[in-house]
Specification:
Layout lengths: L20 E7 L2 E2 L3 E3 L11 H5 L2 E3 L2 E5 L5 E4 L1 H14 L7 H14 L12 E10 L12 E10 L10 E5 L16 H16 L4 E3 L16 E5 L5 E4 L8 H13 L4 E4 L11 E6 L3 E10 L2 E4 L9 H14 L10 E3 L2
Parallel strand pairs: 9-10, 9-15, 12-13
Antiparallel strand pairs: 1-2, 1-3, 1-8, 4-7, 5-6, 5-7, 6-17, 7-8, 11-12, 11-14, 14-15, 15-16
Helix pairs in contact: 2-3
Bound molecules: pyridoxal-5'-phosphate and 2-OXO-4-methylpentanoic acid.
Amino acid sequence: MAKKDIDWSNIGFGYMKTDKRYVSNYKNGAWDNGALIEDDKVVISECACVLQYAQTIFEGLKAYTTENGNVVCFRPDLNADRFADSAKRLEMPVFPKERFVDAVVKTVEANIDYVPPYGSGATLYLRPYMFGSDAVIGVKPANEYQFRLFTTPVGPYFKGGAKPITIRVSDFDRAAPHGTGHIKAGLNYAMSLHAIVDAHEKGFDENMYLDPGTRTKVEETGGANFIFVTKDKKIVTPKSDSILPSITRRSLMVVAKEYLGLDIEEREVLFEEVKDFAECGLCGTAAVISPVGRIVDHGKDIYFPSGMDDMGPVIKELYDTLTGIQMGRIEAPEGWIKVIK
Ligand code: PLP
Ligand code: COI
C-alpha cells in the first residue's frame, strides 16, 4: 500500500474520512470483542441517551511518523486512564485500558496510509469516543453503549500554525465548580459553542475562561490548558479542579524540568498576574503549543513581550523538545512512545 495522495502540508484541522474505524458495543453488562469496520455511519435509537441527555465522552491523541520512519503514538495509556475517569463521572462503563490501547494500535495500523509523512507538519488525529446508545426517556444512564475510534489526518489547530494568536476573556462559563470541567465530556464542548462562535465573530481566536466561582483565576480555553513563562523563565500553569488534566501540559512540565532545567509551578494563577508574564501558550494534543500574543479583557489589551510575530524563546524551546520527543529526534522518557509500526 502507498501513502494517500494528500497535500499534507496544507491540511487544516478538519475531518477527512479514512478507511477503517474500530467499534465495540456494550450490552447486558459486557463489552463485545470489537472489530474494525468500514461503515462510518452510526445508527442508534431516536431516544438514545446521547441524543437526549448528552451522555458522551471522548479523547484526542495523535499518531506521528518519526524521523526514522516508524509510526508512533504519544502516551495512549494516559488517554485510556482519562477516558475511564470521564466514563465513571457520567455513569458509563469503563472501556478497559488494554483494549483502549489495542484499539488505538489496530485503527492506526488499518489507516497507516493516512499517517502524514515525517516533516510534513501534519499528523494523524485519533478520536476515541463512547456514547449511551439505547433509548432512555427518564433522566438516567443508558444500559447500552458504543465505543468507537476513528482517525483523520490534521494540520495545525489554529490557522497560521506557530503565529501568536489573540484570545479574549470570556463572559460565558464553560465549567461549574464541582461540575464536569475535569473530564472530557461532549457536554463541556456544547457549553463552549456559543462562546467560540461569538469570539470568532468578534475577531478573537479563542476564549480564556476564568473560574466561574470568582472570575479571578485563570482556568483554560475551550480546547487547551495554559502555560505561562515568568520574566525569570519559570514555567507556571494553572491548577484547578475544573480544568481538563491535559496530557500535553503534564508532559511539558516534565520536559521543562528534566530536559530544560527550568523551574515549574502548578498553582492557582490570578488573572491579575497575567500582565506580568513574559510568554503565554496554549497546550493540548490539537493545539500542541500555540503561542498567545495578546489577551483582550473587556477592551483592555495585554500584550506579551514575546510579541505577535513569533513564539517566545522559552515556549519555542518547550515546543521543539516536545515535538522532538514525539517525532523521535529526542530520546523520550520511558513509556511515553508507543511504537505501532
Ligand atoms: N483542555 C481542554 C478543554 C481540551 O479539550 C484539551 C484537549 O484534549 C486539552 C485541555 C488538552 O489536553 P491534552 O493535552 O490531553 O490533549
Ligand atoms: C484535543 O486536543 O485532542 C482536543 O480534543 C481539543 C479539541 C479542541 C479538538
